[in-house]
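agent> fetching stored inputs for the manganese (II) ion docking request
agent> found them:
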Amino acid sequence: MFRTDIYINRRNALRNLVPSGVILFLGHAESPVNYPGNTYRFRQDSNFLYFFGLNLPRLAGVIDIEEETDCLYGDDPDIEDIIWTGNLPSMEELAARAGISSVWPYRDLRIKLLSAIRKGRKIHFAPPYRGDSKIILSELLGIRIGELDNYASKKLIRSIVQLRSEKEPCEIEEIEKACDTGYEMHTLAMRLCKPGIFEYQITGVMEGIAGAANGMTSFPSIQSQNSEILHNHSHNNILQSGKMLVTDAGAETYMGYASDFTRTIPVDGKFTAKQLDIYNIVLAANNLAQEIAKPGTFYFDVHIAAAKVIAEGLKNVGLMKGDVDDAVQSGAHALFFPHGLGHMMGLDVHDMEDLGEKYVGYDDEIQRSTQFGTANLRLGRRLKKNFVLTVEPGIYFIPALIAKWETEKINSSFINFRKVKEYLDFGGIRLEDNIVVTDEGCRRLGQKRIPITKEEVEEEMNK
Ligand code: GLY
Ligand code: MN
Ligand code: MN
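agent> prediction call returned; pasting C-alpha coordinates
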Protein backbone atom coordinates (compact mmCIF):
# COMPACT_ATOMS: atom_id res chain seq x y z
CA MET A 1 0.00 0.00 0.00
CA PHE A 2 0.98 3.61 -0.39
CA ARG A 3 1.04 5.91 2.64
CA THR A 4 -2.32 6.37 4.37
CA ASP A 5 -2.59 10.05 3.46
CA ILE A 6 -2.53 9.16 -0.27
CA TYR A 7 -5.87 7.35 0.11
CA ILE A 8 -7.36 10.04 2.36
CA ASN A 9 -6.39 12.69 -0.19
CA ARG A 10 -7.86 10.69 -3.08
CA ARG A 11 -11.19 10.27 -1.29
CA ASN A 12 -11.23 13.94 -0.38
CA ALA A 13 -10.55 14.84 -4.01
CA LEU A 14 -13.46 12.63 -5.01
CA ARG A 15 -15.73 14.39 -2.50
CA ASN A 16 -14.88 17.68 -4.17
CA LEU A 17 -16.04 16.31 -7.52
CA VAL A 18 -19.19 14.45 -6.45
CA PRO A 19 -21.32 17.03 -4.64
CA SER A 20 -23.93 14.83 -2.94
CA GLY A 21 -25.07 11.28 -2.26
CA VAL A 22 -23.46 8.02 -1.23
CA ILE A 23 -20.54 6.58 -3.21
CA LEU A 24 -20.27 2.81 -3.12
CA PHE A 25 -17.13 0.86 -4.05
CA LEU A 26 -17.49 -2.91 -4.00
CA GLY A 27 -14.21 -4.75 -3.59
CA HIS A 28 -13.86 -8.10 -5.29
CA ALA A 29 -14.64 -11.52 -3.84
CA GLU A 30 -12.45 -14.54 -4.50
CA SER A 31 -13.11 -16.09 -7.88
CA PRO A 32 -13.29 -19.92 -7.95
CA VAL A 33 -11.62 -21.99 -10.67
CA ASN A 34 -13.51 -25.25 -10.20
CA TYR A 35 -14.76 -25.21 -6.59
CA PRO A 36 -14.99 -22.42 -4.03
CA GLY A 37 -11.78 -23.27 -2.20
CA ASN A 38 -9.66 -23.41 -5.36
CA THR A 39 -9.47 -19.84 -6.53
CA TYR A 40 -7.81 -17.81 -9.25
CA ARG A 41 -5.14 -15.50 -7.96
CA PHE A 42 -6.98 -12.69 -6.21
CA ARG A 43 -7.13 -9.39 -8.06
CA GLN A 44 -8.80 -6.46 -6.35
CA ASP A 45 -11.07 -4.09 -8.25
CA SER A 46 -8.88 -1.20 -9.41
CA ASN A 47 -11.25 1.57 -8.30
CA PHE A 48 -11.41 0.06 -4.82
CA LEU A 49 -7.65 -0.29 -4.84
CA TYR A 50 -7.23 3.33 -5.90
CA PHE A 51 -9.42 4.84 -3.18
CA PHE A 52 -8.93 2.32 -0.35
CA GLY A 53 -5.68 0.49 -1.17
CA LEU A 54 -6.73 -2.76 0.53
CA ASN A 55 -5.85 -5.81 -1.49
CA LEU A 56 -8.11 -8.35 0.22
CA PRO A 57 -11.43 -9.94 -0.77
CA ARG A 58 -14.97 -9.18 0.53
CA LEU A 59 -14.57 -5.54 1.41
CA ALA A 60 -16.69 -2.55 0.46
CA GLY A 61 -16.11 1.15 0.89
CA VAL A 62 -18.72 3.85 1.23
CA ILE A 63 -18.11 7.58 1.03
CA ASP A 64 -21.09 9.51 2.37
CA ILE A 65 -20.85 13.04 1.07
CA GLU A 66 -23.42 14.75 3.33
CA GLU A 67 -22.44 12.85 6.48
CA GLU A 68 -18.75 13.44 5.68
CA THR A 69 -17.84 9.85 6.54
CA ASP A 70 -15.73 7.17 4.89
CA CYS A 71 -16.80 3.70 5.98
CA LEU A 72 -15.26 0.29 5.44
CA TYR A 73 -17.42 -2.84 5.40
CA GLY A 74 -16.01 -6.32 5.93
CA ASP A 75 -15.71 -9.09 8.48
CA ASP A 76 -13.00 -9.84 10.99
CA PRO A 77 -11.26 -13.18 10.45
CA ASP A 78 -12.75 -15.96 12.56
CA ILE A 79 -10.89 -18.90 14.08
CA GLU A 80 -11.46 -21.02 10.94
CA ASP A 81 -9.75 -18.35 8.80
CA ILE A 82 -6.87 -18.13 11.23
CA ILE A 83 -6.38 -21.94 11.27
CA TRP A 84 -6.07 -22.07 7.50
CA THR A 85 -4.41 -18.79 6.66
CA GLY A 86 -2.64 -17.71 9.83
CA ASN A 87 -3.12 -14.47 11.69
CA LEU A 88 -4.90 -11.91 9.56
CA PRO A 89 -5.27 -8.21 10.27
CA SER A 90 -8.48 -7.11 11.96
CA MET A 91 -10.88 -4.84 10.12
CA GLU A 92 -9.83 -2.01 12.47
CA GLU A 93 -6.19 -2.47 11.44
CA LEU A 94 -7.08 -2.59 7.75
CA ALA A 95 -9.25 0.48 8.01
CA ALA A 96 -6.48 2.37 9.80
CA ARG A 97 -4.11 1.66 6.89
CA ALA A 98 -6.64 3.28 4.58
CA GLY A 99 -7.23 6.18 6.99
CA ILE A 100 -10.75 5.13 7.96
CA SER A 101 -12.21 5.03 11.46
CA SER A 102 -15.74 3.88 10.68
CA VAL A 103 -15.76 0.08 10.34
CA TRP A 104 -18.81 -2.15 9.94
CA PRO A 105 -19.62 -5.84 9.38
CA TYR A 106 -20.26 -6.63 5.72
CA ARG A 107 -23.95 -7.37 6.33
CA ASP A 108 -24.48 -3.80 7.54
CA LEU A 109 -23.76 -2.52 4.04
CA ARG A 110 -27.32 -3.44 3.13
CA ILE A 111 -28.69 -1.44 6.08
CA LYS A 112 -26.64 1.62 5.12
CA LEU A 113 -27.74 1.52 1.49
CA LEU A 114 -31.40 0.78 2.26
CA SER A 115 -31.56 3.71 4.62
CA ALA A 116 -30.04 6.00 1.95
CA ILE A 117 -32.40 4.70 -0.73
CA ARG A 118 -35.43 5.23 1.53
CA LYS A 119 -34.39 8.85 1.99
CA GLY A 120 -34.24 9.21 -1.80
CA ARG A 121 -30.49 9.73 -1.80
CA LYS A 122 -28.40 9.02 -4.89
CA ILE A 123 -26.17 5.93 -4.69
CA HIS A 124 -23.21 6.42 -6.99
CA PHE A 125 -21.53 3.28 -8.31
CA ALA A 126 -19.25 2.44 -11.24
CA PRO A 127 -20.44 -0.05 -13.89
CA PRO A 128 -19.78 -3.57 -12.54
CA TYR A 129 -18.02 -6.00 -14.88
CA ARG A 130 -17.73 -9.22 -12.84
CA GLY A 131 -20.71 -11.53 -12.54
CA ASP A 132 -20.59 -11.84 -8.77
CA SER A 133 -20.30 -8.08 -8.26
CA LYS A 134 -23.33 -7.61 -10.50
CA ILE A 135 -25.34 -10.04 -8.39
CA ILE A 136 -24.32 -8.38 -5.11
CA LEU A 137 -25.04 -4.88 -6.45
CA SER A 138 -28.34 -5.98 -7.89
CA GLU A 139 -29.42 -7.44 -4.56
CA LEU A 140 -28.16 -4.48 -2.54
CA LEU A 141 -29.76 -1.84 -4.71
CA GLY A 142 -32.84 -3.63 -6.03
CA ILE A 143 -31.81 -3.00 -9.67
CA ARG A 144 -32.14 -5.77 -12.25
CA ILE A 145 -28.75 -7.04 -13.39
CA GLY A 146 -29.36 -6.03 -16.98
CA GLU A 147 -30.21 -2.49 -15.86
CA LEU A 148 -27.16 -1.87 -13.65
CA ASP A 149 -25.11 -0.14 -16.33
CA ASN A 150 -27.95 2.30 -16.96
CA TYR A 151 -27.95 3.28 -13.29
CA ALA A 152 -24.16 3.58 -12.98
CA SER A 153 -23.27 7.15 -12.00
CA LYS A 154 -21.91 9.26 -14.87
CA LYS A 155 -20.82 11.83 -12.32
CA LEU A 156 -18.78 9.19 -10.50
CA ILE A 157 -17.36 7.80 -13.73
CA ARG A 158 -16.19 11.21 -14.91
CA SER A 159 -14.77 12.02 -11.48
CA ILE A 160 -12.80 8.78 -11.23
CA VAL A 161 -11.45 9.29 -14.74
CA GLN A 162 -10.40 12.81 -13.85
CA LEU A 163 -8.50 11.60 -10.79
CA ARG A 164 -7.00 8.38 -12.08
CA SER A 165 -5.84 9.79 -15.43
CA GLU A 166 -3.13 12.03 -13.98
CA LYS A 167 -0.72 9.71 -12.23
CA GLU A 168 0.85 10.70 -8.93
CA PRO A 169 4.65 10.39 -8.45
CA CYS A 170 4.17 7.26 -6.31
CA GLU A 171 2.13 5.67 -9.10
CA ILE A 172 4.70 6.49 -11.77
CA GLU A 173 7.33 4.90 -9.55
CA GLU A 174 5.24 1.70 -9.38
CA ILE A 175 4.64 1.71 -13.14
CA GLU A 176 8.39 2.08 -13.67
CA LYS A 177 8.89 -1.06 -11.57
CA ALA A 178 6.41 -2.90 -13.81
CA CYS A 179 8.33 -1.59 -16.83
CA ASP A 180 11.65 -2.82 -15.47
CA THR A 181 10.12 -6.26 -14.98
CA GLY A 182 8.77 -6.00 -18.53
CA TYR A 183 12.31 -5.33 -19.71
CA GLU A 184 13.50 -8.56 -18.07
CA MET A 185 10.56 -10.51 -19.56
CA HIS A 186 11.18 -9.31 -23.11
CA THR A 187 14.95 -9.60 -23.11
CA LEU A 188 14.68 -13.14 -21.75
CA ALA A 189 12.20 -13.98 -24.54
CA MET A 190 14.72 -12.60 -27.05
CA ARG A 191 17.49 -14.78 -25.67
CA LEU A 192 15.33 -17.92 -25.62
CA CYS A 193 13.85 -17.52 -29.10
CA LYS A 194 15.19 -19.97 -31.70
CA PRO A 195 13.78 -22.29 -34.34
CA GLY A 196 12.52 -25.66 -33.14
CA ILE A 197 11.10 -24.83 -29.72
CA PHE A 198 7.46 -24.35 -28.79
CA GLU A 199 6.18 -20.84 -28.23
CA TYR A 200 4.92 -21.90 -24.79
CA GLN A 201 8.43 -22.83 -23.72
CA ILE A 202 9.29 -19.14 -23.95
CA THR A 203 5.96 -17.90 -22.60
CA GLY A 204 6.13 -20.02 -19.47
CA VAL A 205 9.60 -18.91 -18.48
CA MET A 206 8.93 -15.29 -19.45
CA GLU A 207 5.77 -15.10 -17.35
CA GLY A 208 7.66 -16.57 -14.40
CA ILE A 209 9.70 -13.36 -14.28
CA ALA A 210 6.56 -11.41 -13.40
CA GLY A 211 5.93 -13.86 -10.55
CA ALA A 212 9.54 -13.65 -9.42
CA ALA A 213 9.06 -9.89 -9.10
CA ASN A 214 6.21 -10.58 -6.64
CA GLY A 215 3.50 -9.75 -9.16
CA MET A 216 1.91 -11.33 -12.17
CA THR A 217 1.41 -10.55 -15.82
CA SER A 218 -0.76 -7.53 -16.54
CA PHE A 219 -2.80 -9.47 -19.15
CA PRO A 220 -2.57 -12.86 -20.86
CA SER A 221 0.66 -12.73 -22.86
CA ILE A 222 0.47 -12.59 -26.63
CA GLN A 223 3.39 -14.55 -28.01
CA SER A 224 3.22 -16.11 -31.43
CA GLN A 225 5.03 -16.59 -34.69
CA ASN A 226 1.66 -15.88 -36.32
CA SER A 227 2.49 -12.28 -35.65
CA GLU A 228 -0.23 -10.86 -37.90
CA ILE A 229 -2.88 -11.95 -35.36
CA LEU A 230 -3.32 -8.95 -33.08
CA HIS A 231 -4.34 -10.71 -29.88
CA ASN A 232 -3.34 -14.35 -30.18
CA HIS A 233 -3.32 -16.12 -26.83
CA SER A 234 -2.36 -19.57 -28.07
CA HIS A 235 1.28 -20.60 -27.74
CA ASN A 236 1.26 -24.03 -29.36
CA ASN A 237 3.40 -23.55 -32.47
CA ILE A 238 6.94 -24.77 -32.98
CA LEU A 239 9.02 -21.74 -33.95
CA GLN A 240 10.04 -21.90 -37.57
CA SER A 241 13.00 -20.43 -39.32
CA GLY A 242 12.03 -17.41 -41.42
CA LYS A 243 9.14 -16.36 -39.13
CA MET A 244 8.93 -13.46 -36.70
CA LEU A 245 7.86 -13.86 -33.08
CA VAL A 246 5.62 -11.15 -31.65
CA THR A 247 5.68 -10.81 -27.87
CA ASP A 248 3.11 -8.47 -26.34
CA ALA A 249 3.46 -8.88 -22.60
CA GLY A 250 3.78 -6.90 -19.42
CA ALA A 251 4.03 -7.19 -15.69
CA GLU A 252 1.72 -6.09 -12.91
CA THR A 253 3.37 -5.12 -9.64
CA TYR A 254 2.22 -6.37 -6.24
CA MET A 255 0.43 -3.02 -5.89
CA GLY A 256 -1.46 -3.62 -9.14
CA TYR A 257 0.30 -1.27 -11.59
CA ALA A 258 0.91 -2.45 -15.16
CA SER A 259 3.40 -2.36 -17.98
CA ASP A 260 2.58 -3.38 -21.56
CA PHE A 261 5.35 -3.84 -24.13
CA THR A 262 5.56 -5.39 -27.57
CA ARG A 263 8.59 -6.45 -29.49
CA THR A 264 8.74 -8.42 -32.75
CA ILE A 265 11.89 -10.39 -33.44
CA PRO A 266 13.18 -12.70 -36.17
CA VAL A 267 13.06 -16.34 -35.03
CA ASP A 268 16.49 -16.86 -36.61
CA GLY A 269 18.12 -14.08 -34.58
CA LYS A 270 18.78 -12.03 -37.70
CA PHE A 271 16.33 -9.92 -39.71
CA THR A 272 16.00 -10.53 -43.43
CA ALA A 273 16.15 -7.46 -45.67
CA LYS A 274 12.42 -7.81 -46.39
CA GLN A 275 11.58 -7.98 -42.67
CA LEU A 276 13.84 -5.05 -41.89
CA ASP A 277 12.20 -2.78 -44.48
CA ILE A 278 8.85 -3.15 -42.74
CA TYR A 279 10.35 -3.25 -39.23
CA ASN A 280 12.05 0.11 -39.67
CA ILE A 281 8.79 1.74 -40.76
CA VAL A 282 7.10 0.61 -37.53
CA LEU A 283 10.10 1.76 -35.52
CA ALA A 284 10.01 5.17 -37.21
CA ALA A 285 6.28 5.49 -36.39
CA ASN A 286 6.96 4.57 -32.76
CA ASN A 287 9.83 7.06 -32.47
CA LEU A 288 7.91 9.86 -34.13
CA ALA A 289 4.95 9.36 -31.78
CA GLN A 290 7.28 9.69 -28.79
CA GLU A 291 8.81 12.82 -30.26
CA ILE A 292 5.50 14.62 -30.73
CA ALA A 293 3.38 13.43 -27.78
CA LYS A 294 3.12 16.35 -25.36
CA PRO A 295 0.60 18.14 -23.15
CA GLY A 296 -2.20 19.76 -25.14
CA THR A 297 -1.78 17.52 -28.20
CA PHE A 298 -4.67 15.26 -29.14
CA TYR A 299 -3.49 11.65 -29.08
CA PHE A 300 -5.73 11.27 -32.12
CA ASP A 301 -3.32 13.57 -33.99
CA VAL A 302 -0.35 11.53 -32.81
CA HIS A 303 -2.12 8.40 -34.10
CA ILE A 304 -2.67 10.06 -37.48
CA ALA A 305 0.96 11.23 -37.64
CA ALA A 306 2.10 7.65 -36.97
CA ALA A 307 -0.32 6.39 -39.62
CA LYS A 308 1.29 8.79 -42.12
CA VAL A 309 4.76 7.47 -41.32
CA ILE A 310 3.39 3.99 -41.98
CA ALA A 311 1.68 4.98 -45.24
CA GLU A 312 4.77 6.84 -46.45
CA GLY A 313 7.01 3.90 -45.61
CA LEU A 314 4.71 1.41 -47.30
CA LYS A 315 4.58 3.65 -50.34
CA ASN A 316 8.37 3.62 -50.49
CA VAL A 317 8.32 -0.18 -50.41
CA GLY A 318 5.72 -0.18 -53.19
CA LEU A 319 2.82 -1.54 -51.11
CA MET A 320 0.82 1.69 -51.08
CA LYS A 321 0.47 4.39 -53.71
CA GLY A 322 -1.00 7.86 -54.21
CA ASP A 323 -0.91 10.87 -51.94
CA VAL A 324 -0.05 9.88 -48.35
CA ASP A 325 -2.29 12.48 -46.70
CA ASP A 326 -5.23 11.46 -48.89
CA ALA A 327 -4.55 7.78 -48.21
CA VAL A 328 -4.61 8.28 -44.45
CA GLN A 329 -7.64 10.57 -44.68
CA SER A 330 -9.43 7.81 -46.48
CA GLY A 331 -8.28 5.17 -43.95
CA ALA A 332 -6.22 3.15 -46.44
CA HIS A 333 -3.37 2.64 -43.93
CA ALA A 334 -5.77 0.60 -41.78
CA LEU A 335 -5.39 -2.39 -44.09
CA PHE A 336 -1.95 -2.69 -42.49
CA PHE A 337 -2.48 -0.80 -39.21
CA PRO A 338 -6.02 -1.68 -38.12
CA HIS A 339 -5.68 -0.78 -34.44
CA GLY A 340 -5.06 2.32 -32.40
CA LEU A 341 -1.71 3.85 -31.46
CA GLY A 342 -2.24 3.35 -27.76
CA HIS A 343 -4.25 3.54 -24.58
CA MET A 344 -4.02 4.82 -21.03
CA MET A 345 -2.17 2.54 -18.62
CA GLY A 346 -2.05 2.42 -14.83
CA LEU A 347 -3.81 0.14 -12.38
CA ASP A 348 -5.31 -1.56 -15.42
CA VAL A 349 -3.33 -2.35 -18.52
CA HIS A 350 -6.10 -0.59 -20.48
CA ASP A 351 -6.61 1.88 -17.69
CA MET A 352 -10.20 2.40 -16.53
CA GLU A 353 -11.63 0.52 -19.49
CA ASP A 354 -14.38 -0.72 -17.16
CA LEU A 355 -15.61 2.87 -16.93
CA GLY A 356 -16.00 3.19 -20.70
CA GLU A 357 -13.48 4.45 -23.26
CA LYS A 358 -15.99 7.11 -24.18
CA TYR A 359 -15.04 8.77 -20.87
CA VAL A 360 -11.41 7.63 -20.55
CA GLY A 361 -10.06 8.11 -24.06
CA TYR A 362 -12.48 10.72 -25.37
CA ASP A 363 -14.39 13.69 -23.98
CA ASP A 364 -16.59 16.62 -24.97
CA GLU A 365 -13.84 17.91 -27.29
CA ILE A 366 -13.30 14.76 -29.31
CA GLN A 367 -15.38 11.67 -29.97
CA ARG A 368 -14.28 8.33 -31.34
CA SER A 369 -13.92 8.05 -35.12
CA THR A 370 -16.20 5.62 -36.91
CA GLN A 371 -13.67 4.88 -39.68
CA PHE A 372 -12.37 1.30 -39.90
CA GLY A 373 -9.11 1.05 -37.97
CA THR A 374 -9.12 4.51 -36.42
CA ALA A 375 -12.33 3.48 -34.64
CA ASN A 376 -10.12 1.14 -32.60
CA LEU A 377 -8.11 4.02 -31.16
CA ARG A 378 -8.78 3.79 -27.40
CA LEU A 379 -7.26 7.19 -26.57
CA GLY A 380 -7.93 10.24 -28.72
CA ARG A 381 -8.21 13.12 -26.30
CA ARG A 382 -5.74 15.86 -25.47
CA LEU A 383 -2.79 14.66 -23.44
CA LYS A 384 -2.08 16.12 -20.02
CA LYS A 385 1.00 16.04 -17.86
CA ASN A 386 1.33 12.75 -15.96
CA PHE A 387 -0.89 10.75 -18.26
CA VAL A 388 0.71 7.33 -18.71
CA LEU A 389 0.04 5.64 -22.03
CA THR A 390 1.29 3.21 -24.61
CA VAL A 391 2.76 3.88 -28.05
CA GLU A 392 2.18 0.79 -30.17
CA PRO A 393 2.12 1.18 -33.94
CA GLY A 394 2.13 -1.92 -36.11
CA ILE A 395 2.06 -3.23 -39.66
CA TYR A 396 0.32 -6.54 -40.35
CA PHE A 397 -0.43 -8.60 -43.41
CA ILE A 398 -3.74 -10.25 -42.58
CA PRO A 399 -4.66 -12.51 -45.54
CA ALA A 400 -8.44 -12.47 -44.90
CA LEU A 401 -8.52 -8.66 -44.63
CA ILE A 402 -6.38 -8.23 -47.73
CA ALA A 403 -8.68 -10.58 -49.69
CA LYS A 404 -11.76 -8.69 -48.52
CA TRP A 405 -10.37 -5.27 -49.46
CA GLU A 406 -9.20 -6.49 -52.84
CA THR A 407 -12.53 -8.18 -53.66
CA GLU A 408 -14.55 -5.20 -52.50
CA LYS A 409 -12.10 -2.71 -54.04
CA ILE A 410 -11.74 -0.86 -50.74
CA ASN A 411 -9.23 1.99 -51.01
CA SER A 412 -7.91 0.35 -54.18
CA SER A 413 -6.50 3.65 -55.43
CA PHE A 414 -4.06 3.63 -52.50
CA ILE A 415 -3.12 -0.06 -52.28
CA ASN A 416 -0.87 -1.98 -54.63
CA PHE A 417 -2.60 -5.35 -54.18
CA ARG A 418 -0.31 -7.17 -56.60
CA LYS A 419 2.71 -6.30 -54.43
CA VAL A 420 0.79 -6.92 -51.18
CA LYS A 421 0.26 -10.52 -52.26
CA GLU A 422 4.01 -11.07 -52.02
CA TYR A 423 3.62 -10.50 -48.27
CA LEU A 424 0.77 -12.89 -47.46
CA ASP A 425 3.03 -15.09 -45.32
CA PHE A 426 5.01 -12.18 -43.85
CA GLY A 427 3.15 -11.95 -40.52
CA GLY A 428 3.10 -8.65 -38.66
CA ILE A 429 5.22 -6.29 -36.60
CA ARG A 430 4.21 -4.28 -33.53
CA LEU A 431 6.56 -2.23 -31.34
CA GLU A 432 5.11 -0.96 -28.07
CA ASP A 433 6.64 1.32 -25.45
CA ASN A 434 5.17 2.98 -22.36
CA ILE A 435 5.44 6.73 -21.79
CA VAL A 436 4.51 9.39 -19.26
CA VAL A 437 3.58 12.88 -20.44
CA THR A 438 5.92 15.51 -18.97
CA ASP A 439 5.86 19.34 -18.86
CA GLU A 440 6.96 19.72 -22.45
CA GLY A 441 6.84 16.30 -24.06
CA CYS A 442 6.97 12.77 -22.83
CA ARG A 443 9.40 10.37 -21.22
CA ARG A 444 9.75 6.67 -21.90
CA LEU A 445 9.16 4.58 -18.79
CA GLY A 446 11.59 1.98 -17.50
CA GLN A 447 15.27 2.38 -16.76
CA LYS A 448 16.30 1.03 -20.17
CA ARG A 449 14.47 0.80 -23.46
CA ILE A 450 13.88 -2.83 -24.38
CA PRO A 451 16.18 -3.57 -27.36
CA ILE A 452 14.42 -2.20 -30.43
CA THR A 453 16.86 -1.32 -33.20
CA LYS A 454 18.01 -4.09 -35.55
CA GLU A 455 21.45 -4.07 -33.91
CA GLU A 456 20.11 -4.11 -30.34
CA VAL A 457 17.64 -6.94 -31.03
CA GLU A 458 20.14 -9.12 -32.86
CA GLU A 459 22.75 -8.56 -30.16
CA GLU A 460 20.31 -9.54 -27.39
CA MET A 461 19.07 -12.59 -29.30
CA ASN A 462 22.56 -13.83 -29.85
CA LYS A 463 23.75 -13.41 -26.26
N1 GLY B 1 -1.70 -5.83 -24.62
C1 GLY B 1 -2.75 -5.37 -25.39
C2 GLY B 1 -2.44 -4.05 -25.88
O1 GLY B 1 -1.32 -3.77 -26.25
O2 GLY B 1 -3.25 -3.18 -25.88
MN1 MN C 1 0.45 -4.64 -25.49
MN1 MN D 1 -1.07 -1.88 -25.27
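agent> quick read of the result: The chain has two domains: 4-165, 169-461.
agent> awaiting further instructions
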